[in-house]
Amino acid sequence: MTENRARRWVGYRPEIRIVDCTIRDGGLMNDHKFTDEVVQAVYHACSAGGIDYMEIGYKGARGMYTEGEHGKWRFCSEDDLKRVVESGDGLVSRTKLSVMADVDRTDHKNDLLPREDSEISMVRVATYIHQIPAAIELVTAAADKGYETCVNIMALSTAPRNELEGALELLAKCPTGAIYVVDSFGSLYGEQVREYVDLYLSHAGPAGKEVGVHNHNNQQLAFANTIEAIVRGANLVDGSLAGMGRGAGNCPTELLAGFLHNPRYHLRPLIHCVQHHIEPLRQDVRWGFDIPYMLCGLLNQHPRSAMEFNESDRHADWVAFYDEITTV
């Protein structure tokens, strides 16, 4: 028994793939106004590091977002994608590009080309529980155009169990390749992650679909909860370099690459990118664990109030923020 356990932990599960969300999730903190240099650096780091997918931004409908007010990675035009992929060093990459498509904020008819005409490999549909029919329509359209697909059910911790089970039944019948457990508020603990992954697998597994996990770090549990999901059978795991993401951020990609023991992952290029391109962004972009984000996680609340507080002139008065969000 001990020998079998040891073999499990020093070996690796080749089915597990990492999706790096640095630019997509981190873009929620700077309106997706990354320079080409930073985006190219992340792409090169993912490529050299063996990361499976890089989620480079959103496929936002241009009629809903104003260019200039939002950066180019809110739209991910093919010209911008080509410039990143074709830049520098003659690097041949196995890293695939992914985009996120919000339900009701994506014009898939006009903005999503057939897969053979696009730099994008995977489309991940982000949906709330009440939008599931629209999510199925969007993910079906993406699959019909030849893309790999996922469905990410947002704000999972607020979804009623009966509605969640109904959604999973419907998603198991649609053409998505994976269904994601998403801890949007960073409120979940390990036991809950295990239960959710088991529930998702009970629907996804028989339908030949995989389960993924995307955790936020409000309670400094993103990495631990991702490990819990992996142990229960999740094969798609999200991370971001230095944990860069909305609010408290995400599970760090570099931690995942080190933990998984897969020889195709290489830490040095990831750490180089963190040192030279991601950490310098902290001068202007604030992300990562702090008390206001912790409180939102503990109370299972959206971090928008903490984000607004951290940008205000009261950002050092954590007690005032606590009183604010706990007053009914």
Question: Which short descriptors sum up this protein?
Answer:
TIM Barrel, 2 domains, 328 residues, alpha/beta, 8-stranded parallel barrel
What does the model show?
- Helix 3 (about 35-50) packs antiparallel against helix 11, helix 8 (about 190-205) packs parallel to helix 9 and helix 12 packs parallel to helix 14 (about 320-325).
- This protein folds into 2 domains: about 1-285, TIM Barrel, CATH 3.20.20; about 290-325, no CATH class.
- It is built from 14 helices and 8 strands.
- By secondary structure, the chain is of the alpha/beta class.
Question: Can you give me a brief rundown of this structure?
Answer:
The chain has 328 residues and is of the alpha/beta class.
Give the radius of gyration. Answer: 19 Å
Helices and strands: which structural class?
alpha/beta
For the record, the count of structural domains works out to 2
Strand order of the largest sheet: 1-2-3-4-5-6-7-8
Euclidean distance between termini CA atoms: 52 Å
Helix run count: 14
What is the overall silhouette?
globular
Level-2 CATH architecture of the largest domain? Alpha-Beta Barrel
Overall pLDDT: 94
| Record field, number of beta strands | 8
Query: What do we call the CATH homologous superfamily of the largest domain?
Result: Aldolase class I
Flag low-confidence runs.
Answer: none
Task: Chart the SSEs and their pairings.
Layout: H1 2-10, E1 17-20, H2 22-26, H3 36-49, E2 53-58, H4 78-85, E3 96-102, H5 108-111, E4 120-127, H6 132-144, E5 148-153, H7 161-173, E6 178-183, H8 190-204, E7 210-215, H9 222-232, E8 236-239, H10 253-259, H11 267-278, H12 291-298, H13 304-310, H14 318-326
Parallel strand pairs: 1-2, 1-8, 2-3, 3-4, 4-5, 5-6, 6-7, 7-8
